[in-house]
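Course assignment 3, question 2. Fill in each field.
Student: A.L.
Task: Predict the tertiary structure for the chain below.
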Amino acid sequence: MDLGANPVEFITHATGDWALRFILITLAVTPIRRIFGLSEIGRFRRLLGLFLFFYASIHFLTYWWLDKFVDVAEILGDIGKRPFITIGFTSVMLMVPLAVTSTGGWIRRLGVQRG
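Answer field:
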């Protein structure tokens, strides 16, 4: 695999692209299930959401650690200055509780009805 002249940028873009793909696929599960009557596809929604969280986390950690070298002041400046980073950061933070509560134990504790 050729990472090019800037491997950090390549990894950041690749993981971000996969996170976008997985969010679109995950959000498409319910409409596909309803329109085409494919109830079996619903079983994969949680797994797809976890793949999304994985790629979004790797994307964020690449930016935070390899691109900004854990410089919190610079990251906060980017969050305030660049709308796409603001949206991405907010999205990752909103996914954390979803990922944490996606385990079988949490689903039982929350009393979520499956089906």
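Instructor remarks: Helices lie at 7-36, 45-67, 72-81, 83-100, 104-110. The chain has a mean pLDDT of 90.
Grade: pending
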